[in-house]
Amino acid sequence: MDTSTIYATINFAEIQELRLASSSLPSDEEDRAVNNDGEDPAVHIYDDVLAVNNYTRQCPRRHWLTLKLGCAGLILVLIVIGISVTVGFLVQSPPRVNMTEPTGRSAVLTCPRDWHPYWDKCLFISQTTRSWVEGQADCSMRGSTLLVIENEEELKFIWDFLKRKSTKFYIGLNYVPAEKIWKWVNGSILNPDVLQITIKNEDNGCATISGLEVLVEKCSVYHLYICQKKLKPV
Question: Domain for residue 219, yes or no?
Answer without folding.
Answer: yes
